[in-house]
């Protein structure tokens, strides 16, 4: 699989005016209280971001995960974290293992930096087995919950990867909205070489701001920070991290989590009721499904788009094939529209040979 395919992301699968099942961002705008906090800092933009802004973001994230500020590094989105970790691995001559199917940007960054990469492809139902990871791997990357399979791995299985001399990277971009975040997240755990990457853009509709943070081994984070440009994050990015880790955010997050859980259950019922195959039971705000057997998957997705519905192709993820499609969790009314379009395309495909 080429780097061009690995670099395809959900935002490239949606055109203006299409109903978006391809991008895993919750909502179409930040909540009012969050927008107000960011707007309140607009007049501060004439000045450079300050050390106090950075410390406030670190402390907020540290409180959220029960750790200290030295174990937090604010980031310009998880993507910056993958870039910094790839550079870290290259400087130290580390050998990487990336668990697939999963978000592809980590492998792209590692290969760009010249780091040797071994793919660990999990067979369906994509359950993580630590024994599959090569013992020689000095850096391991795994998602939890995993994008695009929506599989949630046991905390203990991922923790078992950590050891002195190895960097274990857990991508928890969607972990804030799983049913038992505290029971599955490794953020805040005191384990050697652990780096957990967190996003604040998915749940809070801030994808255009590029904000997130790493929490983990302070020695690794200090090395990442030492090789960044000056002022790596702007004032609004730092404010977003602090705001999304605040007590106000915690109360709102609980409501978002409950809404997504309810919508996911209803969505799965609607999909299954329409005969749409769900590949594995989902734990995240997206569902991995399969296009109908005997119908060209690419053509099928194209026909869905002709009816105004954008989905995420999954043949760009190592370990998945063209029949796999990722669907973001949406409200029942929106899902019913997708189901109707899906059934229409199936009906057209079945009629075509008889013409």
Topology:
Elements: H1 3-6, E1 19-20, H2 32-39, H3 51-65, E2 72-75, H4 78-92, E3 96-100, H5 105-112, E4 117-121, E5 139-143, H6 155-159, E6 167-171, H7 181-184, E7 194-199, E8 212-216, H8 218-226, H9 235-244, H10 247-273, E9 277-278, E10 286-290, H11 297-306, E11 309-310, E12 312-313, E13 324-328, H12 332-351
Parallel strand pairs: 1-11, 3-4, 3-5, 5-6, 6-7
Antiparallel strand pairs: 2-8, 7-8, 9-10, 10-13, 12-13
Explain what the structure shows.
- The protein is an alpha/beta fold.
- The chain has two domains: 3-28 and 250-348, Aspartate Aminotransferase, domain 1 (Alpha-Beta Complex), CATH 3.90.1150.10; 32-245, Aspartate Aminotransferase, domain 2, CATH 3.40.640.
- Helix content is 38%, strand content 15%.
- The chain has twelve helices and 13 strands.
- The chain has helices at 3-6, 32-39, 51-65, 78-92, 105-112, 155-159, 181-184, 218-226, 235-244, 247-273, 297-306, 332-351, and strands at residues 19-20, 72-75, 96-100, 117-121, 139-143, 167-171, 194-199, 212-216, 277-278, 286-290, 309-310, 312-313, 324-328.
- It has a seven-stranded mixed β-sheet with strand order 2-8-7-6-5-3-4, with helices on both faces.
- α4 runs parallel beside α5 (105-112), α4 (78-92) crosses α8 (218-226) and α10 runs parallel beside α12.
- The longest helix is centred in the C-terminal third of the chain and has 27 residues, at 247-273.
- The mean pLDDT is 95.
């Amino acid at each position: 699989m080429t780097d061009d395919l690995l670099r395809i992301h959900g935002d490239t699968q949606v055109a203006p005016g299409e109903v978006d099942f391809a991008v895993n961002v919750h909502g179409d705008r930040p909540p009012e209280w969050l927008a107000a906090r960011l707007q309140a800092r607009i007049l501060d933009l004439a000045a450079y971001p300050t050390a106090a802004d950075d410390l406030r973001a670190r402390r907020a994230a540290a409180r959220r995960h029960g750790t200290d500020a030295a174990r937090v590094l604010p980031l310009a989105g998880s993507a910056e974290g993958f870039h910094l970790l790839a550079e870290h691995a290259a400087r130290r001559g580390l050998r990487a293992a990336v668990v697939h199917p999963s978000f592809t940007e980590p492998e792209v960054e590692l290969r760009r930096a010249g780091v040797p990469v071994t793919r660990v492809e999990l067979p369906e139902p994509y359950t993580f087995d630590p024994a599959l990871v090569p013992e020689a791997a000095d850096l391991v990357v795994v998602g939890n919950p995993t994008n695009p399979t929506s599989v949630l791995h046991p905390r203990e299985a991922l923790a078992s990867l950590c050891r002195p001399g190895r960097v274990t990277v857990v991508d928890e971009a969607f972990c804030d909205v799983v049913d038992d975040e505290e029971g599955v997240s490794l953020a805040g755990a005191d384990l050697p070489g652990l780096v957990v990457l967190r996003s604040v853009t998915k749940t809070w509709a801030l994808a255009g701001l590029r904000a997130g943070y790493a929490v983990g081994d302070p020695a690794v984070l200090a090395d990442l920070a030492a090789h960044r440009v000056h002022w790596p994050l702007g004032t609004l990015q730092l404010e977003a991290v602090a705001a999304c880790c605040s007590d106000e955010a915690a109360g709102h997050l609980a409501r978002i989590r409950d809404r997504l859980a309810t919508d996911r259950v209803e969505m799965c019922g609607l999909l299954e009721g329409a005969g749409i195959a769900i590949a594995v039971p989902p734990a995240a705000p997206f569902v991995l499904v399969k296009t109908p057997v005997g119908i060209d998957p690419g053509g099928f997705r194209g026909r869905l788009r002709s009816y105004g519905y954008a989905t995420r192709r999954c043949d760009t993820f190592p370990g998945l094939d063209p029949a796999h499609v990722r669907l973001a969790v949406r409200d029942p009314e929106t899902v019913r529209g997708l189901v109707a379009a899906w059934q229409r395309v199936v009906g057209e495909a079945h009629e075509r040979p008889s013409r």
